[in-house]
Fold each of these.
Amino acid sequence: MKDIKIKDAAYFPRPQAIYKALPIALTMGEAAAEYMAGWEFNGLIILASAGEYDDGKEWLHVSVSRKSRLPMYEELTRIKRDFIGDDKKAVFILPEKEKHVNIHDYCLHLFYSAENPLPDFTGGSGSI
């Protein structure tokens, strides 16, 4: 993984004041502090991290969770809007069963790359 300074990265989220910043130690510990930030809003816990994956591209990873249920679609789309942006494409990953790791029962994950490596899934129609 290359040295990513997310606090200086243009794509790293800077959410509105309604999101309460969480201490990094509460989220993932000191080792991840340079690459991660966390927030809380209305019972949602939002963690954002940046990294380079097997494709050699930098990706922003935004996870959103609740203590006792999965976030609803409306909550996930709000987090996408507020942490990634309405004008950007994000992907929600459902991995192969053998690659699925469940650290938290009620957590969903969004990924965004500024390089936008995904195809236009609309087939040119502009609508999915």
Amino acid sequence: MADRLPPEAELAWATFHEVVNMTSDELRTWLLTEASGEEAFSDRGDLGLPELGEKVVALLRKRKVDLTPEDTDVMRQVTDFVTDEEDNPPPDGPADHEWRRSLMTVGHDPMRT
């Protein structure tokens, strides 16, 4: 019989999937689009994608039974970030371009309902 996930991992999974409203393909496309700006494709050899965004893409492609303790930490980090940002929106709300871009980097588009 397979081991059950710890309750905190189950809760992190559920909460993460409530706040992340982009698919892995949508997020990857967004990250690549953002990375293709003036500062992108540096000579570092990588695509210059935000590390947290890449982790979210990987998590969205994972099955719950394959989660690691590090994945649980990442899900909590994303959930905390999105919750904090949504609790303190800028005066323009979702229309604020920088705020929206920041949230979309972790898979949350505030323009979606």
Amino acid sequence: MEQELKCIAIITARGGSKRIPKKNIKNFCGKPMIAYSIEAAVKSGLFDEVMVSTDSEEIAEIAGQYGADVPFMRSEKTAGDFATTSDVILEVLERYREIGKKFRYICCIYPTAPFITAEKLKEAMDLMEMHCPVGVMPVTAFSYPPQRCYVVDKEGMLTFKNKEYLNTRSQDLEVWYHDVGQFYFYDTKQFLKLNGDISEQILPVFVSELEVQDIDNEDDWKIAELKYRLMNGKKD
């Protein structure tokens, strides 16, 4: 008999990080990086399941120590460099369906997002339930208007990308936002209907730039730790 549950948190954490080895479990301000995502999900109380999708036994062991389930290991197909996040989510949903569990909502959480909080997750869930969008995700405004960017031409010279904005004041330009790469809530039926190709009907959770940091190299890592310590009053 199939059991319908409210929401699952899927933390996507494969073991093959190349730019920062073992990034998902590297020590970040005193804890493995993935611990922050797990603890925020558990603390929120929103989820019937908090699970980690991984191909690494080491990640699985650490995930379990911080309160997540690893009911199965990620397949070889979704552990490769070209597998998308949607591929991983679809695989997880199918594996749960095979054991008779389905979920009304999905929350995909990245394992390298130490600025996630239970409060942000609750805010996103409230938006899902009140407005019934396809998805909800946190965004932040670009710190400098991208309409006023330069590019380098064939001669190696700087040239204004959008000349129509050459004399437009920054404060008069439309505010543009970008995904902060922390988490995504989805309506499961819509996610499956669209096969994970979600690009419209997404509501925003607005996040301060102080709580946002891509972590792709060692400099990014250091900046993220500085921001985290600043936010949390840590001096060590």
